[in-house]
Amino acid sequence: MIVKNYDAEFCGKIPIHHINLIQPHGYLLVLDRNDQRIVQLSENIQSLFGKTPEEIIGTNFSEWIAEPLDLTKLSTNANSHQKTPYYLTIYEQRCLALVQAKEKYLIVELTAASGDRRDFLEIYQTLTYYFSVIEEANDLPSLLKATVEQIRLVSGFDRVMIYQFDENWNGKVIAEVNHTGKTDYLGQQFPPSDIPKTARDLYQRNPYRLIPTSRYEPVKLYPIVNPITLSFMDLSDCHLRSVPKVHLEYLQNMGVDASMSVRILIDNRLWGLISFHHNTPKYPDFELCSQLQLLAEFFTRQLANLLNKEHFDLSREISMHKNALLNDLYEKESLEEALLNQQEHLLKLFACDGAALIFQNKLHLLGKVPDDEHIQNFVFWLQEKNVDRVFAVNNLSDLFEEAKAFASVASGMLVIEIDKDHGNYLICFRPEHPYTINWGGNPNEALQFESDKKNYHPRNSFVIWRQQIQHTSLAWKNEELLAASDLRHYLFEHLRRHPLD
Predict the structure, then answer these.
(1) Which of 102, 116, 214, 343 is in the most buried spot, having the most CB atoms within 10 Å?
(2) CATH superfamily ID and name for 6-307
(3) Model confidence at 388, in pLDDT bands (50, 70, 90)?
């Protein structure tokens, strides 16, 4: 069964950062960087300033605040995504201002300041304790479990999940603490269109995304066009940026009111998200959001350490088996004998159940392999195709129809080309590894288009929809592919030293 990719076809192309709308729990101002004149604002500003947008436009921001805005604290890099926090007083209303400097203007996001501010020492003590609990976890399951438990205690959200992306940007819930009284999502997978490419890209610029209530009415900017850029405002870096209506509907269909997500970046790539759900509206202040950001960053460092250790352990094991083969390639004149003399090293090097060396019109077999005729037919197919010199696939039957007949033995293949013209190859086989994907709702119904084919809605059911995966092996790891490339190099070096007759 083929799952539709709405992310590539539709959702991933929608410009969600040029919508000229913000969420109503705050206010947005755009100031001319030269003189702090207000050139654009959100239409709800009257409830804070006591004047209409038309009356405020063109005035100086300093007229409205009790203390001057110290621009020396701002980043001088116009391409920076950093926001500088300030406490400002507007008509005796204490506000938290997040200010970001662009080349020609300033973006000011205002929200009501929390009345129960904690001092630095209290916050530091709390974070230090939670850091120590997370730090004690020395394996991935323990780390995931400790992180969602501690972050839920800090955040007060009903549900906290860790959501990991795969190579196709499907997201899977790999850890969860659920106090919502609703369905668990642990182990369920969600299609890329649930968090489309445009939204994922914004997490490269912003550490978190907050929606205090999914039932809000968005607020427009006035005027519609930014007078300085003569275009719609780019709200990519704004916490107050409104989200598409379809996403709010998506949350409501899930029974979620408040939502928050904090990014997990590994090697500057979006690895996943820490996602928060709440049954009722929830308005965490900037201090709490910053604490959650710090906790997520600490978790990310611990996660990266564990993943690096896994990579190191795997690389060390691969090197051990590869070096054993290379020693034989240097010591023996016969390439066949060099590769097959210690067959356990070849099988363990590529974590395969069987291998075939086709060399000088002879077939040498190890372990569990397809029958000779199927192997020969596959070699003919390889010779006709323009495949890479190291070719790996874990769902061979999708490319080579005949492979369904031997899927239980060889659904996955790793091919090292020795001499394509003469049909000389080293081929490693992996058996079928059938499994079930538990989707959070039918992924082929992720979007429901109206009759006009323009307006659309998210799926309204998240009941588990099971997809059976067959004729597929475990995927080949990058470390194994690099080892295959190295081995191919040494095979050619061996043939150079011991040319064929």
Answers:
(1) 214
(2) GAF domain (3.30.450.40)
(3) confident
